[in-house]
Amino acid sequence: MMRPEVLGVWALALIVNQFCSANSLQLGAARYLAVRDERHARLSVFFPMAGMLVLPLITFIPPIAASILLPNIDELFPGLNNPTEASYVAIAMMVLPSGMIGMLVCSIFAATLTSLNSSLSVNAGVATRNVYLVLLNPGANERELLLVGRVLTVLLGFFMMGIGLFLQNFNDLPLFELTLALAGLIGMPMTVPLLLGLFVRRTPDWSGWGTVLFGTVVSMLCWFAVPTETLVRWIGFRSDLSGLEVADMRFALTLFASTIASIAFFFFSKLFNPQDTSERALFFQRMATPIDLETEVHGDSVGAQARMIGWLGIIYGAGVAAFALFTSQWMDRLAFLGSGGIVLLVGFVLLWVANRSNRKSSLFTSS
Predict the structure, then answer these.
(1) What is the structure's pLDDT at 298?
(2) Mean of pLDDT values over 187-206
(3) Could you tell me which of 23, 119, 137, 84 has the C-alpha nearest to residue 244?
(4) How many Å apart are CA 308 and CA 317, to the nearest integer?
(5) Which helix (H) or strand (E) holds 362?
(6) Residue-wise over 176-197: b if at least 16 C-beta within 10 A, else e?
(7) pLDDT digits over 173-196, tens only?
(8) For the chain, how many structural domains are there in total?
(9) Which of 267, 289, 311 lies at the terminal end of a domain, its last residue?
(10) Residue 37 DSSP SS3
(11) Using CA atoms, how far apart are residues 117 and 271, in angstroms rounded to an integer?
């Protein structure tokens, strides 16, 4: 389906995209804003790292199995332009017991809504603090900023729905390819300044927006103006590419071009601001200063959070396990008891963590 050199370029582009996204302040590095100290910051790296190593081994099994067990998947889903996108759900319908399909659908919607909610909150917060407060109304109080953030959240929600309706015009393009196209066109130009800004000093305030605009223009030119075959010849590849190879090379070369252009523009902007501003110097000073729990963190919320999530886990786990009472097949019962038991176990562990945290807090207060 794809020659090795094209596959290598495509995989390298995905690695570059994932590396920048996982370390930029827009996505991955934003987790450091919510940790309580340096130890938790390190743990927030190791846990997702372990998940990235283990979870793909599980989540990739259904679509891979579908290619063998369901060779006629296009006949099962004739209404889809890309029937292979239904491979995960098709395998789930084959192997999951009755009742668990509904749970799977709920989990898919829940995962989508939580990601959408986070995206809306981040973008509305950025627009409120960095546009409205800085440019439109510098004297706004917190109550007004909260109201503006809520209004922007609603407006951005309608904007996202409009984008979704617009993308229906590209329903012939597979969902995975569409996601990669958006990452290459606008994702990387937005990610680069939010990554380099954590390390590179003495850049003007307009370097971030300038990088986004310049990188987006370059990616648009590579995607729409320059034929993929021309780009392939420029780097010394053969031009007799299949349709799949053309799509993957277009994404890879667009992402590389936008990444290089964005990085170059960001460093170029340093020529216009050789000195640190007071706000920029304060930012790097605060970032390098360890957190003082006694003065910066008032009270320990670890116990309260662990207790709340722990009880939710126990309730949800017990509810899932209870479905075993309504089936007569032993394999179906084991499926419900196994999945519910795992959630129950996590809930009890979190309650143990909450009680342990409360005992530590009591000892600290009494001493």
Answers:
(1) 57
(2) 86
(3) 84
(4) 14
(5) helix 330-366
(6) eeeebbebbbbbbbbbbbbbbb
(7) 666 677 777 777 788 888 899 899
(8) 2
(9) 289
(10) coil
(11) 38
Determine the pLDDT at residue 313. Answer: 94
Domain boundary among 257, 289, 321: 289
Query: CA-to-CA distance for 39 and 16, rounded, in angstroms?
Result: 27
Q: Can you read off the two tokens belonging to residue 315?
A: 């309730």
Domain check: are 226 and 179 in the same one? yes
pLDDT at 247 over 80: no
Shared domain check, 271 and 193? yes
Burial 10-30 (b: 16+ CB within 10 A, else e): beebbeebeebbbbbbbbbbe
Residue listed under structure tokens 């460093």: 267
Mean per-residue pLDDT, 140-168: 88
Look-up: residue for tokens 């599980």? Answer: 58
Same domain as 311, residue 245? no
Burial of 221 (0-12, 13-18, 19+ CB in 10 A): middle
Long-range contact set of residues 156-161: C-beta below 8 Å, sequence gap at least 24:
156/120, 156/123, 156/124, 156/127, 157/120, 160/116, 160/119, 160/120
Task: Check whether residue 185 and residue 240 sit in a common domain.
Answer: yes
Give the model confidence (pLDDT) of 270-313 as tens digits.
888 777 777 778 888 888 888 776 666 655 667 788 899 999 99
Are both 282 and 326 inside the same structural domain?
no
Cβ contact 335:100 at 8 Å: yes
- In a domain, residue 78? The reply is no
Whether 72 maps to a domain, the answer reads no
Residue 346 lies in a domain: yes
Cα separation, 22 vs 210, whole angstroms: 22
196's enclosing H/E stretch is helix 188-196
Q: What pTM value is reported for the model?
A: 0.72
For residue 155, being part of any structural domain is answered with no
Domain that holds residue 314: 302-366
* pLDDT, position 304: 83
With residue 306 as reference, give the H or E element that holds it: helix 302-322
Cα distance between residue 354 and residue 349, in whole Å: 9
